C-alpha cells in the first residue's frame, strides 16, 4: 500500500472514531441491555430484579410466553403495522405531487417552498396535535381510527416530502424530453421515468414515516379511542404505568425485529438483480 | 418532394429572434447539417422540428402535412441529445427498445429488431449493461440506436459528438456516415464544428444570429462562400480589400488596394466601382522562391511577398506572407517531401500567385 493510502486510511479511522464510539455507547449498549432485560424477572416494586442472585443468573422466558400466549398482543402489533402502512401510503400520495410541484417550480421559489414544508416544526408537536383535537371535535371524528391516521399523516408528512423532493429535484429534465420524443405520453413518462428514478426517495421517505409511526404513542393517546391502542402505547405503559420492564423490553425487541425483517424483505424485493430480469 | 419543409419560421424569446425567418427544405435520405456559432439558434430550430417548441411565425411541414399542434410524442421524429439522455434505470437493451414499446410492438418484433440494431451499432455484448457501465462512445451508440430503431422519418442530432475526445470523434464520424447510408434515414445534424459539417454532410445550412446565411453542398460552401460570414466561419480564408474595375464579358477585374489588379472568377450583378473583399483559401495560394526558376509568372495574379512567419503542422506548413501593400496572407503548403519542415525561412522574399478562377469576390 502506498504512503498516501496509509495516511488516508488513518484519517478515515480517526474521523469515523467518534461516531462509532457514540453508536456503540448509545445504541448498541442500550440494545444489549434491552435484550438482557427481556429475559429478566420484574423487580418487586417495578424495574428489574437483579440479574445475579445467590451466585446464579436469573433468566426467564416468562415475558415471551406471555406475549405469544395472548392474541391481544398480536392484534395490537397487526393494528400498528396497518396504521403505519396506511399512514405511509397516504403520506406518499399527498407528498408526491407536492414534491413534484416544488421540484418543478423555478429555482428561486424552491427554498421558500421547502421552508414552508418544515415550518410546522417551529411550534411544539403536542400543541399541534391538540389543535387537531379542536379541528376534529366538531366533525365528530375525534377518538376514532380516522383521527389517529389523520394526526399521524399530519405529523409525518414532511418526512415524506423532503426525501422525495431531494430526489426529484436531481432528475435530469432531458430524460423526460427524451421519453416524450421517443413516443411516451404524459402518464407513460411518469410511470416509466419519473417513478422508477424516484424509488430511492420513496424508500427513504417510507422508512422515515413508517418506523416512527410504529413507535408513536402520543397521537393515539390524544386523538384515538380506547380501541386505538398501538404498540407504542403498550410499550410506554409497561415502563411508566405497570412498571413491567421485562415485558416492555420484549415488546420493543420484537418490534425492532419485525421492522428489520420488513426492511430486509423490501430490500430484497427492490434489488437490482430482480429488476434486471 | 421534400421530407421536411420549413417555411418562414421565426421564434422569439422576448426581443431576441433565436430563429429568424428561416426557410429550408430537406430531402428524403439526406444528411443535412445545421452549422453555426454558439447561440445562433441551432438547438432552437431543432426543438421546433421535434415539437418541444412551436414557432411564433411560419410553419413546418413533414411529408407535406403541417406539424403545428402535433406534440413530440406523436411526431415520427426522434432526437439524439448531446447529453445522450439515456435512461439510467434501464439496461442498454431496454433503452434501445423503449421507442418500440411506446409504439406498442409485440415482444417477438421487439426481440428481432433489437437484435439487428444492437449488431448495427456493435453493442450486442453490452445489451444487459446499464448506461453507467458504458464508455462515452458506447453511450453515444446506444443513443443513436435508440433514435434509429423505430425508423423515424427524421433523426435529429444535436451536437452528438460534442462530448467525445478528438480521436473517438473521428471514429464516430466515420460510423455516423456509414450508419446513415445503411439505414437511409434522413439526418438533421447540428454542430458548431465546420470540420464535422464538411466531413459528414450532403448539404450544410450555415446559420448566424438566427438566420440562414447559405445552404449548399460542402464543396460549394467551402469553395464559394456567399458572404463574409460564411467565408470566415468555414476554414481559414484570406480577405483582400478590393474595388471592382471591370465586371463584364465574363471577366472580373479587381483592384487590390495598394497592390495592383487581379483577375477573378466572374460573378453576376456586380457594378464597376463597388467595393468588397476578395476571399482566397490558403491552399490556393502558390509560393515560389523569388527569382528562382520555380517562379510562377504563368499565373496572371502574381505578386511579391516576404515570409513573416510559419507554422509547422506535420502534414502541412502554414506560411504568413506580407505582400507589398502590407497585407498579410496565409499560404498552405503540403510537406510532400518526408522529413522536410519548410521550404522558406523567415525574411525570404518570395513570389506569390494564384489562378484566375481561384477565390471569390464578396460584397461588404
Ligand atoms: N427558452 C429560452 N428562453 C430564452 N432564450 C432562449 C431560450 N432558448 C434559447 N434562447 C436563446 O436563443 C438563442 C439561441 O439559442 P440556441 O440554444 O438555439 O443556440 P445554439 O445555436 O444551439 O447554441 P449552442 O451551439 O451553444 O448550443 C440564444 O441566444 C439563447 O440564449
Ligand atoms: Mg445548442
Characterize the structure shown.
The complex is a heterodimer of chains A (277) and B (364). With 277 residues, chain A is mostly helical. Chain A is built from 12 helices and 2 strands; from the N terminus they run αββααααααααααα. Chain A has 2 domains: 3-57, no CATH class; 71-276, Orthogonal Bundle (MetI-like fold), CATH 1.10.3720. Chain B has 2 domains: 2-231, Rossmann fold, CATH 3.40.50.300; 236-363, Beta Barrel (OB fold (Dihydrolipoamide Acetyltransferase, E2P)), CATH 2.40.50. Chain B contains 8 helices and 20 strands. In chain B, helix 2 (92-102) packs across helix 3 and helix 2 (92-102) packs parallel to helix 4 (136-148). The longest helix of chain B has 18 residues, at 166-183. The model of chain B has no long low-confidence stretch (mean pLDDT 91). Classes of the chains: A mainly alpha (277), B alpha+beta (364). The structure holds adenosine-5'-triphosphate and magnesium ion (MG). Magnesium ion is lined by residues 42-43, 158 of chain B.
Name the bound molecules: adenosine-5'-triphosphate, magnesium ion
**Within the CATH hierarchy, at the fold level, what is the topology of the largest domain in chain A?**
MetI-like fold
Query: Number of DSSP helices of chain A?
Result: 12
The H/E string of chain B reads EEEHEEEHHHEHEHEEHHEEEEEEEEEE
CATH level-four homologous superfamily name of the largest domain in chain A: MetI-like
The CATH topology of the largest domain in chain B comes to Rossmann fold
Biggest sheet strand order of chain B reads 6-7-8-3-9-10
Mean pLDDT of chain B: 91
The CATH class assignment of the largest domain in chain A is Mainly Alpha
Taking all Cα atoms into account, the compactness measure Rg of chain A is 24 Å
Could you tell me which chain pair has the largest interface and how many residues each side has? A-B, 19 and 24 residues
The geometry of chain B reads as globular
